[in-house]
Amino acid sequence: MMKGAEAFIFDLDGTFVDSLQDITDALNDALAALSRPTASTDQVRAWVGDGLMTLCRRALPAGDSSASAELARLAKIRYQSHCADHTRSYPNILPMLKLLKSGGARLAVLSNKPHDLTIEGMERLALHGYFDEIRGCSREEDRKPAPRIAREVARSALFPNQL
Fold first, then answer.
1. pTM for this structure?
2. Is the residue at 2 inside a domain?
């Protein structure tokens, strides 16, 4: 029986998995397709965390936001096919998940990555079975740190009989 916390909502990228290379590759393929300069892994590391559209805006020169939607579209297409080429869970993540689940914890993932790509990545890495709820971003206004989706996940998946 667990003592203390009964439920956890985790981020995905940079928390459970190292996905930086696959994100960098997808962004750079999209940038190259638009004849734009590519970015280093260190640049992409500094830009990630706030969702695909924000990543794409950051990858373009200031004032060049007109291409960000097309860049995001192309990067998403590339990433869908290659979201687990280099992505791996960090050491000890699987034992931790097994320990939490064996103790009765309810687990959720909430990512700023687009929802379909979050699901796809979790399935390809065989992490989806540990979680009661997996959510990616479906609308820009729901991107973390906006609390609406986290509250919804807590109500529906983690504490369905308490909230």
1. 0.85
2. no
d(CA 28, CA 36): 9
What is the distance between the alpha carbons of residues 64 and 117, in angstroms, rounded to a whole number? 26
- Cα 125 to the center of its chain, rounded Å: 13
pLDDT in tens, 116-132: 999 999 999 999 999 99
96-106 per-position pLDDT tens digit: 999 999 999 99
Region 30-59: mean pLDDT is 94
- Which of 35, 66, 82 corresponds to the end of one domain? 82
Annotated catalytic residues are 11
Confidence of residue 5 (pLDDT cuts 50, 70, 90): low
Asked whether residue 1 is domain-assigned, the answer is no
Domain that holds residue 118: 7-18+87-158
- Residue whose tokens read 């991107």: 143
Complete edge-to-edge strand list for the sheet that includes strand 133-137: 7-10, 106-114, 133-137
At which residue do the structure tokens 């979790």 appear?
A: 122
Q: How far is CA 124 from CA 50, 80, 153, in A?
A: 23, 11, 22
